[in-house]
Amino acid sequence: MFELTVTDAAGLRSRAATLVTVKAESDPPVVCAGANQTVEPGAVVTLDGSNSTDDSGNVASFHWTQVSGTPVMLANPAAVKTSFIAPKPAVQKRRTRVPAYGNG
Predict the structure, then answer these.
(1) Which 8-state DSSP code applies to residue 80?
(2) Distance between alpha carbon 22 and the CA centroid of its chain, in Å?
(3) In Å, what is the CA distance from 100 to each residue of 54, 94, 95, 96?
(4) Could you tell me if 52 and 31 are in contact, meaning their C-beta atoms sit under 8 angstroms apart?
(5) Domain map of the chain by residue range?
(6) pLDDT in tens, 35-64
(7) Cα(5)–Cα(17) distance, rounded to whole angstroms?
(8) Helix (H) or strand (E) holding 44
(9) Of 29, 66, 67, which is closest to residue 51 (Cα–Cα)?
(10) Is the dihedral of CA 64, 70, 71, 75 positive or negative?
């Protein structure tokens, strides 16, 4: 904030203030990782970040990271679009308990 004081020849004064806000050079990019997908095992899955934007028009880099699920190998984790082969779902083992009934 700045304040200006002006004094005239008779010694009378007036003041006014102004606020200066320095705008950030750039807002953070807006990330779009694409829609959720449901695919068959063995399908080639494409991840597409091309709808991500930056207000300066200059997205500097991309980096895809798998955070859950059966591990896969990304074709190029640093590309705007990358792909992988959908793995077979993990087989879940079920344990069934059968109560034993007997004579006493």
Answers:
(1) S
(2) 26
(3) 66, 19, 15, 13
(4) yes
(5) 29-87
(6) 999 999 999 999 999 999 998 888 899 999
(7) 9
(8) strand 44-48
(9) 29
(10) negative
The whole-number pLDDT of residue 71 equals: 94
Over the chain, what is the mean pLDDT? Answer: 88
Per residue in 61-80, pLDDT tens? 999 999 999 999 999 999 99
Q: Identify the residue whose tokens are 């950030």.
A: 24
Query: Dihedral angle at the C-alpha atoms of 63, 81, 66, 89, nearest 10 degrees?
Result: -170
Give the C-alpha separation, 2 to 96, whole Å. 76
C-alpha torsion 88→42→49→30, nearest 10: -20
One-letter-per-residue 3-state SS of 9-36: CCCCEEEEEECCCCCCCCCCCECCCCCC
Nearest to 59 by CA among 25, 31, 23, 24: 31
84 closest CA partner among 62, 98, 97, 66: 66
